[in-house]
Design brief:
Glutaredoxin, 241 residues
């Protein structure tokens, strides 16, 4: 048996004027007397009525359980301690911005995000060669993370370590590691970036970039740039001594 369903349209009701008149007559009429009676029956409390209401004590915030938090980190004290540590580790005459006439300067530009094995090798070699390690900025934007990372890398070794973003710009460092050797007797000229440090003229330093060891970089400089051979040899002698 086949069943079919069909929908039939219902006639639309017609509302006449008489219907609208009946609806208006059915609506109650609210007079001023009705409003006054409602106001008296449900009046708004006066100020005197409110004063008679007992004032209950508010919540005691001081007795609520307090979360246990660690003591805040004193970043200023941490920064001062870090600066003192770096100053104590700095070999005389190797700092960036020092008088360059006292001897050759070797700078190794690194990043703390480099592979661990590479960083440890460069730190060890820089300590033996009396070279300076430089990073562009703070690790993760945190002084605490930077201090913890550098302390773990240095592991008690005496090596100059500096945060110097201007040096990266000054020597056009675009990749790490990079090695910059400033020759002995280089002229010391004021830097053009507004700081108080000293810069070497372009003819007085050589730059090498690549994921190589410090001894390889010095050997490459010694053989490829004869006028820096003596200075590179001095650092190689320290490194192998």
């Amino acid at each position: 048996m086949l069943l079919t369903l069909s929908a039939q349209a219902q006639p639309t009701p017609v509302i006449t004027d008489e219907d609208m008149a009946r609806a208006r007559r059915a609506q109650p009429t609210i007079t001023d007397q009705d409003i006054e009676r409602a106001r008296k029956a449900h009046g708004v409390p006066s100020a005197a009525d409110l004063e008679r209401v007992p004032n209950t004590a508010g919540p005691r915030i001081d007795v609520l359980p307090q979360p246990q938090t660690k003591a805040p980190v004193d970043l200023e004290a941490l920064s001062k301690a870090y600066a003192l540590q770096m100053k104590a580790a700095q070999p005389p005459g190797t700092g960036v911005g020092k008088d360059m006439s006292g001897g050759p300067i070797l700078m190794v530009f690194i990043s703390l995000s480099m592979p661990e094995a590479t960083l440890k090798r460069l730190v060890s070699q820089a300590a033996r060669a009396k070279a300076s390690l430089l990073i562009r900025g703070l690790l993760n934007g945190s002084l605490r993370d930077t201090v913890a990372r550098t302390q773990a890398l240095l592991a008690g070794q005496s090596v100059a370590f500096q945060i110097d973003p201007q040096a990266f710009e000054r020597y056009a460092i675009t990749q790490v590691p990079s090695f910059v050797l400033v020759r002995e007797g280089a002229d010391s000229t004021p830097c053009g970036d507004g700081d108080r440090g000293s810069c070497a003229p372009p003819n007085d330093y050589v730059r090498l970039a690549g994921d190589v060891s410090l001894d390889y970089a010095l050997g490459h400089i010694q053989h490829r740039t004869p006028r820096f051979s003596k200075d590179a040899g001095a650092f190689i002698q320290r490194l192998n001594g």
